Amino acid sequence: MRVVVVGGGISGLAAAYRLVDRGAEVVLVEQAGHLGGKLRTGEIAGGPVDLGAEAFALRDPRGRPSAAIELVHAVGLADDLVHPAIGRAALAVGGRLRPMPTGTLQGVPGDLAALDGVAAADAGRDHDGGRPLLGAGEDVSVGALVRRRVGDEVVDRLVDPMLGGVYAGRADDLSLATTMPALAATARREHTLTGAVRAALAARPASSGPIFGTLVGGVGRLVSAVTERLAAVDLRLGLPVRAVAADAAGWRVTIGATRDPQTISADAVILATPAKPAARLLAEIAPKAADNVGVLDYASVALVTLALPSVDLPELSGLLVPASEGYAVKAATFFDRKWAHQRRPGVTVVRTSLGRYGDERVLQRDDAELATLAHAELGKLLGRELPEPVDTLVQRWGGALPQYAPGHLDRVAAARSGLPATVALAGAAYDGVGIPACVQSGWTAADRILEGLKP
């Protein structure tokens, strides 16, 4: 069995890992000159810092080890797993840092009294109307449901910054069923929003210990460790995939420059790419699937990491900033506070995030201007003038974060149902952001291919 995996991010790497483990011959093609996609570790002030995702969930929604943890163990990195020293974040609201209210699900409250002045909620709206909030199979935007039940301020001050920190998107645009599946499920049987939140929280499996973890030296080490175990894989880096076409033997994949193309014959193909390239490659072989995939949009973000002369920060992991507060910075991680193993003598490291879906103008500044803006806004958010940084690092991710509009799950299901048995899709575009979701997506795609190749 020869399988071509298109895309060398963590989803493509996970798919290749699974296929090799099951005895398949794999050719992995990646347009960039390196593997790992948005999992990359750089250096600032003499120490490592992640340039994309910095951590991963340790458990899946059922309470079992997440796919990321399974992969960490499989590649021999379990002894290098570390957890946040501080997990508590704050909201920057009205010129103050306010503790994140407890008892919420991605900012959606289960108890309006616990909002403690962070946001004003209209309790009268969340009345029992005698029927579930959502119909069977119905999907709406998170913002639409929460605004209707408890008012605008809860969305603008709580839910929007929470979702913005994960997706760089807006609550009014993001699918409830995709971004909060547990809440969508309880909303199909509960009559109030607060009741649905409490039911979703109660359904979580009992667990103790940390929720998130990372690796000593950065999550980029996971990419290196997986790659080392793919010695038998034919890696083709720095080559675009131009076409996928059917032939008598299976599939013909054309890669490389237009003037000097190369052709790879394969029994199966996994597309572990963003949605637009996947739609282009599917246009001839599965046009209806291409139509469903091609509508997905993306947000661009920039991460600005500042190494400051030692300053005293609040005892927090970081802060979130609602768009309504008027800042370009939408989140900040107090790196030294959150990750005690990464502390550098005499230096305080803060990682800020900028860029929201539909408002990417802030990212049109050059790197120096972006770093200056992040430094100035961070000082305002903390209520003090900060010393000039001794080092800065700007990492841009253009079109990095998929935006899941209502109906996303149905569109993905329709796309996959229209694919030939030996073609599969994998990645954040379809199955969710976050390292565990992407790893699981790659494994599921590999399993689909192996099933499709059975006589």
Automatic annotation (TrEMBL):
Pathway: Porphyrin-containing compound metabolism; protoheme biosynthesis
Names of required cofactors: FAD
Role: Involved in coproporphyrin-dependent heme b biosynthesis. Catalyzes the oxidation of coproporphyrinogen III to coproporphyrin III.
Name recorded for this polypeptide: Coproporphyrinogen III oxidase
Pfam assignment, any one: Amino_oxidase
Superkingdom of the organism of origin: Bacteria
UniProt KW keywords: Cytoplasm, FAD, Flavoprotein, Heme biosynthesis, Oxidoreductase
Domain named Amine oxidase: residues: 10-450
